Amino acid sequence: MIALPAVEYRVTQKDGANYLTLKIPADHWQALQYELASIKGTQVSVKVAKPFKPRTTGEKSQNSHAWGHCTQIARALGMELYEIEYIAKVRAIKRGYPVSTHLGIPIPKSQADISTEECAALIEEYHMIASENDVILVETEPEIKAQPEGHYKPWHWRTDDEKKASDPQRFDDEKNLAIY
Question: I need a labelling partner for 133 at 20 to 30 A (CA). Which of 8, 44, 106, 151 fits?
């Protein structure tokens, strides 16, 4: 199977039939020819979708923004990056984060395959997770570099006094559960 990037198309009609013509970029033509040569017969399956703008990559990009937040949250909560990433993606599904279905189970797509809008939904979910867990996210590289290692102290590493000062309600709820 081969997936083409956004391509120009034209629809024409001749002798009562409809034709779809695609303008294939030169750098994809050889791969397409190879794929067509492996097919027996003259029919192919085609999936047509609106092209999307891929998320940005590189320094100061959406991708860096998302991974920076993921890293900060994982450090602060004492969790693995992949755990925070998966949790954020699952939560972002309600915001439009794309999924594919495998064995009847929706699986969030890789960040490599998402649009700018979908990446924005993921970043917003990182903001929500940070807010819910008292993690102060740093948005710029100079701010991140200025923070000492261990700047964030996970909830379970804090003393009772630190917990009470940062979130009295959560502290009380936790203590009430401890009596049972």
Answer: 106
